[in-house]
Specification:
Elements (H helix, E strand, L loop, with lengths): L5 H26 L20 H12 L5 H10 L14 E4 L7 H21 L2 H17 L2 E4 L2 H18 L9 H22 L10 H17 L3 H13 L6 H4 L2 E2 L5 E2 L7 H19 L8 H17 L9 E6 L5 E6 L14 H11 L5 H10 L21 H5 L36 E4 L32 E2 L9
Parallel strand pairs: 1-2
Antiparallel strand pairs: 3-4, 5-6, 5-8, 6-7
Helix pairs in contact: 1-7, 2-4, 4-5, 4-6, 5-7, 6-7, 6-8, 7-8, 8-9, 8-11, 11-12, 11-13, 12-14, 13-14
Amino acid sequence: MHVTSQISRRSLVKAAALTSAATALGATATALGTTSAAADTAYAHPGLLHTRTDLARMAAKVKAGAAPWAAGYAKLTANRHAQSGWQPDPQTTVYRGAGSPQNYGILYNDLHAAYQNALRHHVSGENAYADTAVAILNAWSHKLTSLAGSADRFLAAGLYGYQFANAAELVRDHPDFDLTAAKKVLLNVFSAPSESFLTRHNDAVVTNYWPNWDLCALACVLATGIFCDDRSRVDQAVAYFKHGAGLGSVRHAIPVVHDSGLAEWLEAGRDQGHSLLGVGLMGTVCEMAWNQGIDLYGYDDNRFLKGAQYVAKWSLGESVPYTPNTRRKGAVGGWSGSETATAAAAVDPAMARPVWAMIANHYTKRRGLSATYLTRIAAKSAPEGGGGDYGPNSGGYDQLGFGTLAFTRDRTPRSETSAAPSPATSAAAAGSGSGSGSDPRPQTRSSGKPAHDLAATGTADVLGWTAAAGVGAVAGGLLLLRRRVRRPAR
């Protein structure tokens, strides 16, 4: 029987199970030091990266052989992870950056297999793929108890937490799926360290870590909150996106807005690979929130659109401005240093990551806005693949991908483009500069001691996927910019 057909048959059983699980989840959240409203909000399900309407659209378009959905589905079925014969290899402890053995590759390969099988099931209707996804997720839920290693353990928590939640969301109504175990591992193993990172930043000063560190954590906390029907975590993630002190909040990640309609992406002063990662993660946060009636895409006069347009233009090999900035680094109460970036880094126009289709389709198809650079780079990147299609290292598995299949949509009628998203219940938390031209090599100056475990990733992934090196202190926890354009909050 098709997974989605199980809902009516099991609704009474699920209602009772959710009622009993609410008390346990509330206790878990309290133990983690958060103010929990676990199971107090009925979010739309499925409702992370894909809604029921999205899944139906994919299936109908592929069945009709429509372009470009058919090409996107062909990328999925050709991926070695999207095969029903995939066998999971769950671990008790996952190590990233340090520890023995560094086995995080096992986790991200299994999670991409779970996601790809689940997505393939929804498009094809074949039960074997759903069964495989369930087997993978149950195996990890029943065995994984901790993440360890260097500071990279926070990257593992954030990245693999939001991926676990998205794969699980697609099979949450399967009769063999252990929903209680999935919630437990999300809350205890993935979301707990992600919440800690947003609060304490691994005991570093708040600007020590580049934007993608915060964005990993945000994606995990938001996905966990929605998956677990936990309003407090959703509110925490939304509030941090808007007003958080770290570099992953929208005004810190995109600190300078130009009259041209472009807005500088902070990490462009670092390298292209991490900038693509950050744009993909911020898009993931915005899409998951949108599917619950929370418009982060449009927050602060479409600030994310302006930042994504900037990265798209830059990644196409065109010149972009960059306002010099100084980032203070260090351990709280420890040694300090600083790093200054004065220009956008060099780019490789051939570098690809599956981040563009989702963002371009939102702004141009859902909202009817002009986004020339997003449209161009999304077309260049199509059809988008997923984990396993962009190299063997972790950077190729940071996004779930398959955006051509999953996010290509027909244009929304103009009369509907200004409407706010309206799924089930939503929970929203409170709350033109000039710069130098692009230089082939960004001029980055550092002071302070060499890196240690506080921020070093310990990885050797290619294409600029090495994370922040070095640590230091910051007065007031604010990014120092020589020139900065501020826009009023909306």
